[in-house]
User: What shape does this take?
Amino acid sequence: MTPIEQDRGSWGSKAGFIIAAAGSAIGLGNIWRFPYVAGQNGGAAFVLIYIIFVVLIGLPVMITELAIGRHTKKNPWGAFELLFPKSVWRFVGGLGIFTGIGILSFYAVIAGFTLGYFFKIIKGDFSSIASGDQAAAIFTAFTANPYLAISLLVAFILITGLIVAGGVSAGIERWSKILMPILFVLLIVLAIRSITLEGASKGLEFYLKPDISKINPGVLARALGQALFSLSLGMGAMITYGSYISRKDNLVTSAASVVFFDTIIAILAGLVMFPALFAMGLDPAGGAGLVFVVLPSIFAKMPGGILFGAGIFLLLAVAALTSTISLLEVPVSYFVDEKKWPRKKAVIWMSVAAFVMGLPSAVSLGASDGLSKLPLVGFGFLDLMNAIFGNYSLSIGSLLIAVFAGYKWGAKVVIAEIQKEGVAFQLKHVWTFLIRFVCPVAIAIIFVYIIVTGNYF
Ligand code: PFF
Assistant: This one.
């Protein structure tokens, strides 16, 4: 093994890979982003479209990214470069690497908030709140302190960097294995409490009974972005993770398990949030602070609320960590593979880049004007980063990856990669149809649609 190969590492086992990939997928996207975006975009109608996109676009793109990664054993840039040297396809990888830092920059801000909330809850800041409005006031005061937000951002990037510097297998697998199942159980308990609150049924209706008339181009674009964001697709995170999988593993069943777990957690998060939100008379379209307002309001109405509250925010921070690890791993693997940088150097520089880019996001939620309400778009800097990197960049990336696999590299080659070592791929015709026609056409139509209607954000 060359030193570079040693620096790349590989997964300990197939289960190790699924857990790590699920760790990348499951994060703030499921518990912070999914409910608030669903709340802003029509509730159940959004959820319906989201699920359709997860199955018809997310799953086939995930299989494709994993196949590219395992075939090339490279970072996103290196993978395209290896397959078609010096072609424009490298820039799909390049866009992904840049997107990784872009998402990390605002994601780590929210992740820092979850860490801050863990300490706030332990301190008993929420033990005497009687209404959702009080919880909202506490959140506003919390974000109004820029030094705190920046310190938490630094803390989160630091923890991520330390783990990524430790290498793939040892760092990521060990953490995810123990903590994700605990998060799942806690969410189930919270969902039960939320659904049994007085006045919860209106929330269930909003969340589960689709009103088709609420579907418009903006809803489609955001559901698409959310599906890709939640599954960590479109920027090569799954190419990078796929590069560490063994030839013997079944990519299709691995991808299906990741998609399944990720979707269950998002749906569950909605079941925690919406019943409680309506029971407390809060606005479902309240935006990025939703989870920080609704969850503490639920704990206040639970025996042992402090314990649950502290537990859920700590686990949320851990779920975020397994995702920030994958966000940082994408640019780091690029510098390790392509520029032959030592892993530590790559980690330090990419962390600094994400921190600097994250500064305006960190102070934007609490700023009284300026960054909290940008002149042209009318909303905050963090929301803008979230839309650009978290929706549009991932949608364009996925479109290009689908076109690459379906037309340039060729569906047959991808299928051959999946079927290595005698693995069966029964749905290969379905996958081929989805990746060649459904994914690119659906994403392109959504783009044309939002451009024509001006429904960008
Ligand atoms: N999928 C993560 C989440 O839902 O929280 C966020 C994410 C991680 C997006 C890695 C993209 C990515 F490459």
In short: The chain has one domain: 3-453.
